[in-house]
Design brief:
Helix content is about 65%, strand content about 10%. It has five helices and six strands, in the order ααβαββαβαββ. Keywords: Coiled coil, Plant defense.
Amino acid sequence: MEIVGSIVTKAAEYTISTIKNHVKYLCNHENQVRTLKNQVESLNDARERVQHSVDAAMGNGEEIEHDVDKWLTTVNKKISEEVEKVMQDEEKAKKKCFLGLCPSFWTRYKLSMEAEEEAKAVAELLKQGKFDKVSYRAAPQGIMVACVKGFETFESRTMVFNGIMEALKDASINIIGGCTGWVALARPR
């Protein structure tokens, strides 16, 4: 008899928790939609911050990291889809059924479930959007040393040339200046 009682108790627990979750979707649909709207707004703010960094980097002639580009594309698509979809679904949820006497429970239930899922997806995009840096300095292209027959290289010029080439490879150097026999390098403070 105890076994039957424990089985019935477990079955009742699972049934009640499942029903409770479904009722939660019906009762909290406005909270779920509000949460989604807030998440989309936060995502839009994060996208703008990253886009400002990307614009500044591109203005400095830097290359944009692939994951940043990919994230921005995904976020732009998600934001445009979400805003339109939420507005449509909200209008559907406001409609009434049964001669206008009852709210449409099925529509509210679906809206609440979808809003919760989308809020999770948006939260994940927000986590992914925290970049340490959005760009990198591209390697200089087209720098070549001309070889001319009968040209005699001087050690001092070779040292200056090698110093300049090393400075060009160093991302922390902002300014390179020089004169015959010396090279000046400037790093940011």
